[in-house]
Amino acid sequence: ISWFTESMREGRPVTVESRHHIQETLAETVCSTPAAVDNVSQYACQRRTTTENHNKMFTDALEVLAESSEFNENEGRCLAFRRAASVLKSLPSAVRSLGATQGLPCLGEHTEAVIEEILQFGRCFKVEEIQCDERYQALKLFTSVFGVGPKTAEKWYRRGLRSFKEILNEPAIQLNKMQRAGFLYYRDISKTVSKAEAQALRCIIEETVHWIMPDAILALTGGFRRGKEYGHDVDFLVTTPELGREEGLLLHVIDRLQDQGILLYCEHQGTTFDATKLPSCNFEAMDHFEKCFLIVRLYEDQVEGGLQRNPGDSRAWRAIRVDLVVPPVDRYATALLGWTGSRQFVRDLRRFARKERRMLFDNHALYDKTKKMFLSTTTEEDIFVHLGLEYVEPWQRNA
Ligand code: DCT
Ligand code: MG
């Protein structure tokens, strides 16, 4: 989402709070059902969202609508549905009547209509229509391949391609290395990764990193740090206690994984980090730290309780997607916060910083525009303190 479109969207008169106050008051007087929760913030970083989602029926539907908007390049709509879903995920109980949503932020008329329909019929017809749509189905299928984004998927769809078989049999299509790996290991990496599998990978990465540098710092990030049971990949942050000693470490780790014969795919990106640059306003842009996107072989006997298997699969291993990111140690806290996610939580941290505090925040730094200076951030807690926010534990960041 570009800074421009986000600002445009947020440019509407900011009487939101007063409107919500009126809506809440109305809800209390008009409806017999009390408002679900008082004072829910419009910012995910001011809400606590565990993995327990009491409103999955609604959020799943909104997720389909968000995804479909994304495929149609309607970023505003996509974000609006994602924000609404995120608010519902934070609620301590299931929404049982439309009255219970009164006063909640970020629920637009489309979302209200979806909730109403699901409450009444147990399903949303618009969502079902999208799920039956040929283009949606094709784009969803194509973007499920590692290395295939919405642009490539759209290009293939426009060529009239509808299945993997058609793509792989089309001589004019040149897959890049990442996409070739994506197809090659599709059955494994399109399957979720369990907590036990993530833990096993942590042991492998830890052993490898510490074999090279015994005092290196390693953290499991992403969804698993937030306490999720399943994920689509396993994300790690690696750094060294002394600034500068991280240089060359990642290439060494990659070599070592290669020597162990467990590296199935590797794309390494060198650092483009520039300490003088202000934090970026573009949330979608990838950060500048050195990193690698891997596909790693994980064996049955390395996982407590064994691997998750596809039916009829007799192999003793499966392939898993792993990301390793190497920030310099003085950027460790901002990188950790960014890579722990969730995307919606971090997106709102950045929006909150900009709009409420005149600060810029991204995976590299926190900058105060009023004081015209970078703020020192050694721990995640420091960042919350600078932003004047209550600390939110990783397991409460599942926005
Ligand atoms: N992230 C980031 N910059 C990117 C991509 C991701 O800062 N270019 C952050 C946002 C969330 C976190 O890193 C991990 O990303 P994912 O693995 O995509 O998300 P996840 O929450 O771990 O979800 P999943 O459980 O599906 O892996
Ligand atoms: Mg992840």
**Total helical segments:** 17
Query: What coarse outline follows from CA principal-axis ratios?
Result: globular
Low-confidence stretches: 1-36
Strand portion, in percent?
Answer: 5-15%
Termini separation: 18 Å
Distinct compounds present: 2',3'-dideoxycytidine 5'-triphosphate, magnesium ion
Order of strands, main sheet, comes to: 2-4-7-6-5
Radius of gyration: 22 Å
Which structural class do you get from the secondary structure elements? alpha+beta
Query: What string, H for helix and E for strand, traces the elements in order?
Result: HHHHHHHHHHHEHEHEEHEEEHHEEEH
Mean pLDDT: 92
Question: Can you summarize the main beta sheet?
Answer: 5 strands, mixed
Number-wise, the strands total: 10
Helix % is: 40-55%
Report what the structure shows:
This protein is α+β, with helices and mostly antiparallel strands. It contains 17 helices and ten strands. A hairpin with a 4-residue loop joins β9 and β10 (373-374). α3 crosses α5, α3 (56-71) packs across α6 (125-132) and α12 (195-212) crosses α14. The longest helix has 18 residues, at 195-212. It is globular and about 60 Å long. 35% of the residues are buried. The structure holds 2',3'-dideoxycytidine 5'-triphosphate (DCT) and magnesium ion. Residues 222-223, 231, 233, 235 line the site of magnesium ion.
Short description:
The chain has 399 residues and is an alpha+beta fold. It is built from 17 helices and ten strands.
